[in-house]
Amino acid sequence: MRRKHSRSIRHGRGRFAFTFAVNQKLQIKPLGETVSLVGFNESESILEIYALQIIFSGKKLTGDYCAIDGEIGILGRDVLNEFSIIFDGINLEWKEQK
């Protein structure tokens, strides 16, 4: 039987995701809800949702976010839409455009 998810997010509509390693350090408790994330290759991941306040580039962002298994987090549209950011993929750098 498939568990009903409270939310479903398809590629292109991303949310910020932090890593399980960060969650272990901060010992954050999930809300008890899950989200179904669907990638570009149509793979699906079921993740728990956490209520967080993050500070990114000096701005406080409050919302519901999920934890992923990986070494780095993911900046979703909910974060990226708040800033004008220049990405330098060759040098693996970024900076905020003011």
Write a structural description.
11% of the residues lie in helices and 44% in strands. The protein has 98 residues and is mostly beta strands. It has a single domain, classed as Beta Barrel (Cathepsin D, subunit A, domain 1). The strands form two sheets. The chain has a five-stranded mixed sheet. β6 (85-88) and β7 (93-96) form a beta hairpin. The longest helix is centred in the first third of the chain and has 7 residues, at 20-26. It is globular. The chain starts with 6 loop residues before the first strand and ends with a strand.
Which class in CATH terms?
Mainly Beta
The CATH topology assignment is: Cathepsin D, subunit A, domain 1
Strand content is: 35-45%
H and E string? EEHEEEHEE
Tell me the radius of gyration.
14 Å
Can you count the beta strands? Answer: 7
Helix count, DSSP H or I runs of 4 or more residues: 2
